[in-house]
Design brief:
Elements: H1 2-24, H2 31-34, H3 53-72, H4 75-81, H5 84-108
Amino acid sequence: MNMMLTMMMLMTSALIMLLTNIIAKKTFMDREKSSPFECGFDPKSFSRIPFSLQFFLIGIIFLIFDMELVLIMPMMITMKLNSMISFSITSTTIILTLMISVLHEWNQGMLEWTK
């Protein structure tokens, strides 16, 4: 009886998944929707177009400021293991470094994306 109930549940879930796939299938095909996304480049055009330096710089800026999560997340463990003074010095150093780097990028004009 237990085996039969399990088989019925498996068959029911497989049928529900199949029906959901059929119902949710999109029939409207568009060139934009069916083409792969290539970082803002049109994959159907000539592949040797000069690379946008501004796009590259925005990607680098994103990676730099994304690293702040890698540095800030373990600070909660540091706060529990070390003293509050050590935690304050570490967090102040990281935040000051990030603020100085944002000011430097702002002065260099890297944050002006509408050029």
